[in-house]
Amino acid sequence: MMKRKKTKKIYVGNVAVGGDSPITVQSMTNTKTSDVEATVAQIKQLESRKCDIIRVAVPDEEAVKAIPKIKKRINIPLIADIHFNYQLAIESIRKGADGIRINPGNIGSKEKLIKIVKEAMQANVPIRIGVNSGSLEKNILKKYGKPSAEAMVESAMRSIELFEKMGFFNFKISLKSSDVMTTIQSYRLISDKTQYPLHVGVTEAGSYNDGVIKSSIGIGSLLSQGIGDTIRVSLTSDPMKEVIVGNKILKTLGLRDYGVDIISCPTCGRCSLNIEGIVERVSRQTEGIRKPIKVAIMGCVVNGPGEAREADVGIAGGEGYGVIFKRGKIIKKVREEEIVDSLMKEIQSMV
Ligand code: SF4
Fold first, then answer.
1. Residue numbers of the chain with a pLDDT score lower than 50
2. pTM to 2 decimals?
3. What is the fold, at CATH topology level, of the domain defined by 260-348?
4. Which sequence spans correspond to the domains of the chain?
5. Which of 8, 196, 210, 348 is most buried, most CB within 10 Å of its CB?
6. If one looks up domain 10-252 in CATH, what number appears?
7. Which residue blocks in 194-238 are alpha helix, DSSP H?
8. CA–CA dist 313, 306 (Å, integer)
């Protein structure tokens, strides 16, 4: 792990992003923002899985009007996501959004961008310059021929220069591509050029399985190079999964304590238990636990006792039974069909 690059610290509501602040996990709701009840319910669920900052789509006036109503009922900062319409960005700031995300490539003109920045400056609200490889400015695309890391960096640099010229420094940057290597390259380039905090993610990463792989490689390799201050995993799936995966990426890199860590054996011919089924059930039943707990589920006596002893809770399997360990000590031997319940009971006693 390389030392984290020191960026400028900004605040999205009361959550710090950049500098020496912890790396945060973001997600985006997939409800209609104008449906306040559904949006609040989803954000509450996401909060419970340790989502630090939430973004909502603001495609129309109705969504703008919902912002203060939603904000009143949630505990994490809310970012308004704006495309095309600069007026919606201005109104979102006026309605109390803690931050706005704009894509300079589709906001229309420099004049409109200036108007947004003036409003953000006055309200002390940060902006994310969210460059996306799929919506670069036409003249940049013409210059580079196709979306590339260099093209995305140039797009971001244009906004950065404009913002700085206006005396506005309260912003973060994202450069997202659906191509993992382009994403990595873009962030590396921009990280060499600026000190502003970086929101890291691979966009349109795909289905759950593909998205997890792409995001883990993209976000994981950047973070391990010390690049990135806040992350969002994009999945064509439930935002809850985005938050869980985001937190697990941070946990895997040792950047956050989060939830139950299951160590399980890959199984082999020595295994006489349905380890796959046990792991699946324990994994499902522990999904909502945020406290860091290490659980070992091992098929036999070869590595089983060793791993089980090292974990907070563990089992080492035998022929139709499992030996349960808790904090290094054997506490009981149970039949196969009782393993999951026994493990869950011990895990719950630690939560
Ligand atoms: S713990 Fe036992 S069953 Fe599991 S992979 Fe190792 S040797 Fe095979």
1. none
2. 0.92
3. Sulfite Reductase Hemoprotein; domain 1 (3.30.413)
4. 10-252, 260-348
5. 196
6. 3.20.20.20
7. 208-224
8. 12
